[in-house]
Amino acid sequence: MCLICIEIAKSKMTVREARAQLREMREGMPPEHLREVEAKLAQAESTETREPTP
Question: 52 in a domain, yes or no?
Answer without folding.
Answer: no
